[in-house]
């Protein structure tokens, strides 16, 4: 652990489901996808949701893991730019998220020692709003959103662009996320350390891993 702590320079976090978990925000994002599918196919919103669910299941059966919603929308012919514009217009995280002092302290102690980054399939305006509501927008060196190269995770080319932009050998990174195949498997295949979290309290594992808790 000590040697890993000495080589680590950059911690890269997923956002949704990793730095916060909120059913209201998640459901609003899902609802936008349903509405776009419904309007594009002349369906009710409920029927649109059924199409989204069945398409997600089809892709899950094909790949063996649940795909990101961006990929489900792409499979249904919805342009990524259209999807994310709708998310900006319709998702209201301020209805669900509040200042999180525990998260601020947790990330703040890491930011004193390491450079923190976000790599997410979400879009920049919505990400900025979410980070501000949580009170952690000032803690990150850079935020990589869908606009960085318009290739949603998991994507090898997009990941390589992120890694090259940050710079450093594999042993200088730690990737943290809530989805093994989407957030963590691609960096792990490059020899990068990863940490799977299922709830925000799991982020304390980072401190344990680095020997910052005794």
Automatic annotation (TrEMBL):
GO terms for molecular function: phosphoglycolate phosphatase activity. GO terms for cellular component: cytosol. GO terms for biological process: DNA repair. It comes from the Bacteria. InterPro entries: HAD-like_hydrolase_sf (IPR050155), HAD-like_sf (IPR036412), HAD_sf (IPR023214). It catalyses: 2-phosphoglycolate + H2O = glycolate + phosphate. PANTHER family: PHOSPHOGLYCOLATE PHOSPHATASE. This is phosphoglycolate phosphatase. The lineage of its organism: Bacteria, Pseudomonadati, Thermodesulfobacteriota, Desulfuromonadia, Desulfuromonadales.
